[in-house]
Design goal:
The chain has 2 domains: 30 residues; 30 residues. 87% of the residues lie in helices and 0% in strands.
Length: 61
């Protein structure tokens, strides 16, 4: 195997490990108080509405 391929595979594995560690760290953080959870729910609802609109627009095109 060429050194470029090995380097690429090692970088990919490192990225996956970093992603897994980041997810574990973020999910381990406290969710915050009631007001923070309320704001997060509103942001999530707005993001979902935006994505639904984008998918509808792309589906029409």
């Amino acid at each position: 195997m060429s050194s470029a391929l090995i380097f690429t595979l090692l970088c990919a594995i490192a990225a996956l490990l970093y992603g897994a560690a980041s997810i574990k760290w973020i999910l381990g953080l406290p969710t915050g108080n009631d007001r923070m959870r309320e704001i997060a729910a509103a942001v999530q609802e707005g993001a979902q509405a935006y994505l639904n609109r984008q998918y509808t627009t792309i589906g029409i095109v």
